[in-house]
Write a structure and sequence with these properties.
By secondary structure, this protein is of the alpha/beta class. Helices cover 36% and strands 22% of the residues. Helix 6 (144-154) links the parallel strand 6 (130-133) and strand 7. Helix 5 crosses helix 6.
Length: 389
């Protein structure tokens, strides 16, 4: 038996790739073409149905991968909101050095961008309400750090991964599962034990729907925890929800009558974009899992757009792609001008195609996840609310 995961060493050395790239590299070497230099562009394809923008993510991991080879890399900043058909990165160097990295490079950027984009859509719909990412159980544990990082960059307020303080500097959030309440035979014992054992700086949020009516359990949680009760969490199964909004309003009303109107309302369990819109005026926090872990896919492709011949870069591409290296200039959020590499823009002045690696050496350090999240949130304020999908 084994875990079917790739090691960091295998990924960085290019062994986790498609076989046709291995064979391509072998042919190039055998035929004496190893020194041919190219410029390869990564750009988005069509965005998922219903999407007007995406959040570019995964750049830090992509740079780590590419820094193992003597290549030069330009890219727009991670966290930038982008359109479909949009150039995001240019990799310059010997094709022999780049060849087998195409598979892991696209995998990193496409997956991280898809997760960050979905997270950003939820945050844009919730805005002043809290979005908690609880989706790790929906994916292989090997990629859990990437999922938490991408979701956080996309704008969620907290993540649940116990490892995330180490990986991305974010203190994890989460209180208790139904299993704890079942072990104690009821909510009262579990809530009391949580309060006795867990550190004071962890909010006391009681899960209230394990055995009894939510209204009954909410009032019981108040009796047990009193003013220490920070919030109550509904994880009510769909088969028992009925009119979920009415149920939440009822519980909030009875809490208010008892002098606990400031207790936070948290909902989780199959939360969709539509659910956020329906419940955001009665809910303080949303726990979102599967919808972010398995988002609609943001497509990207990587293509040669120039070849160095006799000391000059010659534009070239396969059919259906625009030949020639390009630069991206920004006027405002989602307002860009894409021009050939050496052509001055006519409209926008902010050159966001930044050099990150020069012959494999880092020339600009990537921002922290906290800085990236702030960057994304600033942009989200300038885009319309997305239509839920």
């Amino acid at each position: 038996m084994r875990l079917y995961i790739a090691s960091e060493k295998d990924i960085l050395e290019g062994r986790i790739t498609d076989i046709y790239f291995v064979r391509t590299k072998k042919i190039i070497e055998a035929k004496g073409l190893s020194n041919i230099k190219v410029r390869m562009e990564i750009h988005t394809g069509d965005l998922p149905k219903g999407y007007d923008w995406a959040v570019y993510a995964g750049l830090e991991e992509a740079l780590k991968l590419l820094s193992q080879r003597p290549v030069t890399v330009y890219s727009i900043p991670e966290g930038t909101l982008i359109n479909g058909g949009f150039p995001v990165m240019l990799v310059e160097g010997r094709y022999y050095d780049i060849c087998e990295l195409e598979t892991p490079l696209l995998g990193i950027l496409r997956h991280a961008t898809s997760v960050a984009t979905r997270a950003a859509r939820f945050k844009r719909l919730a805005m002043d309400k809290v979005i908690l990412y609880f989706g790790l159980r929906g994916a292989h544990p090997a990629i859990a750090p990437m999922l938490d990082r991408s979701a956080y960059i996309g704008g969620v307020d907290a993540v649940s991964g116990a490892f995330s303080e180490e990986f991305i500097g974010v203190k994890p959030s989460g209180t208790m599962p139904h299993a704890l309440i079942i072990v104690f035979g009821g909510g009262a014992g579990a809530w009391r034990a949580f309060d006795e054992v867990i550190e004071r700086d962890v909010p006391r949020i009681a899960l209230i729907d394990t055995f009894n009516d939510e209204r009954v359990e909410a009032l019981e949680a108040v009796k047990i925890l009193g003013k220490k009760l920070h919030g109550i969490r509904f994880d009510t199964p769909r088969s028992r929800r009925g009119d979920f909004k009415k149920l939440i309003e009822e519980v909030r009303w009875v809490l208010g009558l008892q002098g606990y109107g400031d207790v936070k309302i948290v909902v989780s369990g199959g939360i969709s974009e539509k659910a956020v819109i329906e419940l955001r005026d009665v809910v303080d926090m949303f726990g979102v899992g599967t919808a972010i872990t398995h988002p609609p896919h943001v497509d990207m492709s990587m293509d040669i757009v120039e070849v160095l011949r006799n000391g000059e870069w010659v534009p070239i591409s396969k059919r259906g792609k625009l030949p020639g290296a390009k630069k991206v200039y920004r006027c405002d959020v989602l307002d860009y001008e894409v021009v050939p590499w050496n052509v001055k823009p006519s409209k926008c002045a902010d050159d966001i195609f930044i050099k990150w690696l020069d012959e494999g050496k880092v020339v600009r350090e990537p921002p922290s996840p906290q800085e990236l999240r702030k960057y994304v949130l600033e942009q989200l304020k300038k885009v319309p609310e997305p239509n839920p999908v």
